[in-house]
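FABP6 protein: structure, please.
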Amino acid sequence: QDNMAFTGKYEFEGDENYDDFVKKIALPSDKIEMGRNCKIVTEVVQNGNDFTWTQHFPGGHSTTNTFTIGKEADMETMGGKKFKATVKMEDGKIVADFPNYHHTAEICGGKLVEVSSQISRLVYKKKTKKPQ
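Here you go.
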């Protein structure tokens, strides 16, 4: 993988299953509308394993995450939630676990392709014995 393969500015081109995804991750409705079919520009600066990843939204709002592959970093979701994550590189893809979803990004045919999938969360309660 080229040391600067991700560097560039990428304009939003299209999405698949956007509504279903943002509902599952409980994104507030104003953020859902802000993200729907809007021309988000993602700007990536890569210097080896160091990245600055900025999403510019219409109206002047932007979110920037700075991280180094393999090191824990302070991150922020597009909904404004702050969290810690260790971003990895797997088979040329950037991989990160956000609070409610798993996120990958890769360069395919000169395009930045980001895939977010919901992380299943199972909760089990302890079974108690019923008195005889």
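Notes: The domain at 8-118 is CATH 2.40.128.20 (Lipocalin).
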